[in-house]
């Protein structure tokens, strides 16, 4: 008899009991939260890493965005393997590697070792995340996914926004020099506990598409080259005058690899084989527009949290533990909003996401204005108020958009479809963080010698405007998708006799 309650009560592959599926669901969501937490909590530890290991701007950028790069590169092949082999096995593999990489980060004797270990962490996160999305698709019927993704979005929102606060607390406990190591030590017991639950509770079986059992290694390699060539020049952009302008030549490689990937996938499909990416997915407006919207949105949000913590710590000289607390109102508001929105998305659809984006822009505009215009001693509290408003909108964006993006995707393609959505988010994160923070630092470099607070005001404003522009792009995509949906409804509506 199987030891897994999630798999014991229903002989059908991928079908589990009501209790078992929710147990499996919370294992998945908990691990996803741990993974996403590492994107945000490390931000607040950058000054500590800089002081402890003598890291420069390039190394600090690699610690943050290198994680996102490796995350993005691993997503599609891992999602594909999970779909055609075993999501459970890939989940356990990714979680085990994530725990070991966290140990390597915690013990890193130099910044070079830390960067390599951090990239391995990103690979592990990229193995895990598509299994989470594929398992949610597998565990819940379409009409139930709104609630499931609502809870998922609430948990991820809390993880993203509480990350800086948790990071600040750990640095306060461990000290300004080596406190950053606790950011990684905490992953080890949590990872081991999650591993035990995953082995016991995740379902063993799953439905597979018999026609989609090929792995397509050439397609995976070409897609990886395209993603790498796109993200690398942004990872090497720090805002320093020493940035090598030749890094942008990598975008030529991106164009070439993308063209080869598309040609190969069409050839591979013409042979009657299953390509790594089914282009038919992008023919679905809900999927295509959902990915574009999420890419722009996730280009902005991590950048905003990083800029805010840098500004509070370096510009206003606020301790990391307090600088991290500015995002707590965002976390709480987005968690409640995401849970409610998950129940409303089936009724209101894309309108809910568009309204959320409008509120997000208004909230973050308040954060920017209050951060610059209020006296420094009141800036933290004032900015937290703007974060609360943005959080209300943020909860209306992430989980409803996830539900809408995957609504028309077959369950057998859930892993790879979710992987491509995550690739978009990780590419957006790497590009958004690079552009916004390099704008911040470039302003500091260009205005050296000016009044210190005014210089930080200018850097914060310029970087923040980049992030707000990205959210505006997400809003534009949402409006275009809403218009297209209305046009489709009118076209298919029965005409009066």
In a nutshell, what does this entry contain?
The protein is mainly α and 497 residues long. Helices cover 79% and strands 0% of the residues. It starts with a helix and ends in a 5-residue tail after the last helix.
Helix and strand layout, with pairings?
Blueprint: H1 5-8, H2 18-40, H3 46-53, H4 57-84, H5 87-107, H6 111-139, H7 145-174, H8 180-185, H9 187-201, H10 217-235, H11 250-270, H12 280-283, H13 285-315, H14 320-324, H15 328-348, H16 350-373, H17 376-395, H18 398-406, H19 414-446, H20 452-492
Helical amount = over 70%
Number of helices: 20
The biggest beta sheet reads: none
> How far do the termini sit from each other?
61 Å
Name the beta content range.
Answer: under 5%
How many E-type strands? 0
Mean pLDDT across every amino acid position? 82
What does the radius of gyration come to?
22 Å
Using the alpha-carbon principal axes, give the shape. Answer: globular
Low-pLDDT stretches are 1-14
* Structural classification: mainly alpha
Features:
497 residues; mainly alpha; globular
Descriptive overview:
The chain is mainly alpha-helical and 497 residues long. The chain is built from 20 helices and no strands. The protein has helices spanning 5-8, 18-40, 46-53, 57-84, 87-107, 111-139, 145-174, 180-185, 187-201, 217-235, 250-270, 280-283, 285-315, 320-324, 328-348, 350-373, 376-395, 398-406, 414-446, 452-492. α2 packs antiparallel against α6 (111-139), α2 crosses α7 (145-174) and α15 (328-348) runs parallel beside α18 (398-406). It starts with a helix and ends in a 5-residue tail after the last helix. The relative contact order is 0.14. The model is unreliable at 1-14 (pLDDT under 50).
